[in-house]
Design brief:
The complex is a heterodimer of chains A (251) and B (281). Chain A is an alpha/beta fold and 251 residues long. Chain A has helices at residues 44-50, 81-87, 102-112, 120-130, 134-137, 150-162, 180-193, 206-212, 230-235, 240-246, and strands at residues 4-15, 18-29, 33-37, 61-69, 72-73, 88-91, 168-172, 198-202, 215-220, 223-229. The chains are: A alpha/beta (251), B mainly alpha (281). Chains A and B meet through helix 2, helix 3 and helix 6 of A and helix 7 and helix 8 of B.
Chain lengths: 251, 281
């Protein structure tokens, strides 16, 4: 059990009176890619967003159970949400660069977390290199980030997350708004990032899940139906529901 | 065939209504500018009124309106914008916030003369500010608040939640998110609302009637505790209260031209900001 980065135990999540997640138990392994798959509305994004407390601003969200990052209770009132989010970064479905320059998009997080000023340029350069964006933008770091293409914007959002050196990166369908070439670049990026980070990704794309994941969790109607290695889930699923879904019979 | 007739009928109806509305505006503007433009000159806007206001210019009224608008801005903008930020960003949806929101919308519907009487009771008398630029500016500020709150809230609402999540997910606090992302992004929208509101307030007569506007003053003063002249009231006085209305009619038209140009300029600035913002997206 040493290599568990995030563990979720007996988790229930409600929006008001409606139960969205039912008794979820799942472990995300250190420096592995875990994909969350399942039909729309099954709760996979909701589960992902609970891992860095993105539901905190939703007034009627109620979360039960224990979610741990290493040994630390994610929802413990003693732990600062800012610290959790610094350790657990997030990339969203639609690229959402800040209305600032490319450089400032990365500098922003470093500044609010009070990184030493003199270290910032080097950190930004290495994050952009790590995200395979450096060669494309190194001569125009002052350009507004919104002028980049969709795929570049999404890699910038990944770089913006990476620059803080988090331990976990959550990705919520990061390729759903992108063309196949950009998607391909992001997948390569994910494969190289998993050497340093624990990655949890929500995806609707079965081929993608198969290509990039170590572990796969199949969810349906708010429940975790099956969890296993990618090979097992796609080639030898134990449950009928999982088999039907990965073979494209529904969803 | 039937469809075509219906189509033509609709076209006539819609175009007709638009033409009628613009026609009224056109007639009013033509009337005012054709009769007033000749009295507008440099000396008209740079001189005091003379000879029982039958000659001279409107300088004190321009300065008064200017000062008044500054007081209104300084009072209404900070309170209005922060209130909107609270309602849209912090307040949890509840019966109480709904009541607050409904009250603000209702305030926008109160006749301006009521604001005038309220300003007289509160600022002039209870708070002993007397009839002054300060009292009148604060009264106009109260009148402007609901509009500023509503337009600012609309501007904040247009910022997608994904923008807020971007910085929150990086570990920014809610305050940092509002300061660094939400406000800069919504600034053009907020400014447009603020300018349109102020241009409306600058043309108001009723709220300043009891709270500080004067018939005539002969000193140039920038003091907040003195009475002042203002363009809308000066116009009202020239057109209805003067003892030789016929003589001063050109001056009244000239004053309207200046007031309309002032309000137009503010509106054009607002449209420019909005236009520039739209082309940037």
């Amino acid at each position: 059990m040493e290599n568990m980065k995030i563990s979720v135990n007996n988790m229930n999540l409600y929006f008001g009176k409606k139960q969205i997640l039912k008794d979820i138990n799942i472990n995300f392994k250190t420096k592995k890619v875990t994909s969350l798959i399942g039909p729309s509305g099954c709760g996979k994004s909701t589960l992902l967003r609970s891992l860095n407390r993105m539901h905190d601003l939703t007034t009627d969200a109620i979360i039960e159970g224990v979610l741990k990052l290493d040994d630390k209770d994610i929802y413990d009132k003693q732990n600062s949400i800012i610290d959790i989010r610094k350790r657990v970064g997030m990339v969203f479905q639609k690229p959402n660069p800040l209305p600032k320059s490319i450089y400032e998009n990365l500098a922003y997080a470093l500044n609010i977390h009070k990184f030493p000023k003199e270290k910032i340029p080097a950190l930004i350069e290495s994050a952009l290199k790590e995200s395979y964006l450096w060669d494309e933008v190194k001569d125009e770091l002052k350009k507004p980030a919104v002028k980049l293409s969709g795929g570049q914007q999404q890699r910038l959002c990944i770089a913006r997350t990476v620059v803080l050196r988090p331990e976990v990166i959550l990705m919520d369908e990061p390729c759903s708004a992108l063309d196949p070439i950009s998607t391909n670049k992001i997948e390569k990026l994910i494969m190289s990032l998993k050497n340093d980070y624990t990655i949890i990704i929500v995806t609707h794309n079965m081929q993608q899940a198969q290509r990039i994941s170590d572990d796969v969790a199949f969810m349906y109607m708010g429940e975790l139906v099956e969890f296993g290695t990618a090979d097992q889930i796609f080639k030898n699923p134990q449950k009928e529901l999982t088999k039907n879904y990965v073979n494209g019979h529904f969803g | 065939m039937k469809k075509k007739i219906l189509y033509i009928f609709n076209w006539i109806l819609l175009t007709g209504s638009t033409v009628i509305v613009t026609l009224f505006l056109g007639v009013i503007l033509f009337d005012i500018f054709s009769k007033g433009l000749s009295s507008v000159s440099w000396s008209f806007i740079s001189k005091f009124p003379g000879n029982g206001m039958t000659t001279g210019g409107i300088l004190p009224a321009i300065i008064g309106t200017f000062l008044l608008t500054i007081v209104t801005t300084l009072f209404a903008v900070p309170f209005g914008v922060t209130c909107a930020i609270y309602l849209n960003e912090y307040a949890k949806p509840s019966l109480l916030t709904n009541i607050i929101r409904a009250s603000i919308r209702n305030l926008a519907g109160i006749p301006s003369i009521i604001y005038g009487l309220f300003g007289l009771a509160l600022f002039v008398q209870s708070l002993r500010m007397g009839t002054s630029v300060l009292s009148a500016g604060l009264t106009l500020g109260l009148l402007s608040l609901p509009y500023i709150i509503t337009t600012t809230e609309e501007a904040l609402k247009r910022i997608p939640n994904s923008m807020r999540e971007a910085t929150l997910a990086l570990g920014a606090t809610q305050f940092e998110t509002i300061r660094d992302v939400v406000l800069p992004k919504s600034l053009p929208g907020i400014l447009t609302g603020v300018i349109l509101t102020l241009s409306r307030a600058a043309g108001e007569t009723a709220p300043i009637l009891f709270t500080g506007v004067a018939f005539y003053i002969n000193t140039l003063t920038a003091s907040l505790n003195q009475e002042f002249m203002a363009l809308p009231y000066h116009l009202y006085m020239l057109s209805t209260q003067h003892n030789s209305i016929e003589t001063v009619r050109p001056l009244a038209y000239g004053t309207s031209v200046v007031l309309i140009l002032l309000v137009f300029t503010m509106n054009i600035v607002a449209f420019y900001i909005r236009f520039k913002h739209r082309t940037q997206e």
